[in-house]
């Protein structure tokens, strides 16, 4: 084995990988949502330079996979599973910049068994003028949900033929 072959860069560590990207990949910040933009910029550089960095791209893929899994749970109305996955701290960090994210998800379906019932949820319900009794949400009567009988009178004229 020649000494020249030992000095070649590893295909797993491209020569264009910056020290910042290397420290992200090697450290605990690999899956920190705050660093996604750095990894996305690096992916753009890879595409422009026709290069490939497996480890950096796997870190980005981890974020995308988690978001895709959450999206599928919502689309398929698997709310319990959504809240289990979302309970992971890294997911909450990803959604931290989306103000009102959790409330928006809860608006999709108001069944408490699916909605991660907790004090925050109770506050969410009470802020909307709803009541909770024995973990059941009661919606007060309003113009949209109060059934009233309606009498319809029709006048039909028949012409002689």
* Classification by helices and strands: mainly alpha
Shape: elongated
Radius of gyration: 28 Å
Query: What is the average per-residue confidence, as pLDDT, rounded to a whole number?
Result: 76
Tell me about the largest β-sheet.
2 strands, antiparallel
InterPro entries: ARM-type_fold, eIF3k, Transl_init_fac_sub12_N_euk, WH-like_DNA-bd_sf, WH_DNA-bd_sf
Protein name: 5026_t:CDS:1
Organism: Diversispora eburnea
GO molecular function: ribosome binding; translation initiation factor activity
For this entry, give a set of tags:
translation initiation factor activity, WH-like_DNA-bd_sf, Transl_init_fac_sub12_N_euk, 161 residues, 2 strands, ribosome binding, mainly alpha, 5026_t:CDS:1, single chain
Structure in a nutshell:
One of its GO terms (molecular function) is ribosome binding. The chain is mostly helical and 161 residues long.
Task: Walk me through this protein's architecture.
By secondary structure, this protein is mainly α. It has two domains: 1-97, Alpha Horseshoe (Serine Threonine Protein Phosphatase 5, Tetratricopeptide repeat), CATH 1.25.40; 99-143, no CATH class. The protein is built from eight helices and two strands, in the order ααααααααββ. The chain has a two-stranded antiparallel ribbon with strand order 1-2. It is elongated. It starts with a helix and ends in a 23-residue tail after the last strand. The model is unreliable at 1-9 (pLDDT under 50).
């Amino acid at each position: 084995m020649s000494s020249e072959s030992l000095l070649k860069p590893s295909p797993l560590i491209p020569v264009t990988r910056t020290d910042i990207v290397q420290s992200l990949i090697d450290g605990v910040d690999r899956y920190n949502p705050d660093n996604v933009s750095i990894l996305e910029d690096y992916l753009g550089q890879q595409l422009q330079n026709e290069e490939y960095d497996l480890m950096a791209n796997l870190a980005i893929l981890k974020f995308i996979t988690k978001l895709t899994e959450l999206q599928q749970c919502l689309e398929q109305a698997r709310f319990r599973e959504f809240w289990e996955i979302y309970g992971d701290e890294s997911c909450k960090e990803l959604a931290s910049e989306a103000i009102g994210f959790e409330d928006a998800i809860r608006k999709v379906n108001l069944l408490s068994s699916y909605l991660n019932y907790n004090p925050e949820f109770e506050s969410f319900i009470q802020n909307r003028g709803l009541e909770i009794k024995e973990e059941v949400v009661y919606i007060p009567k309003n113009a949209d949900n109060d059934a009233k009988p309606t009498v319809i009178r029709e006048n039909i004229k028949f012409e002689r033929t």
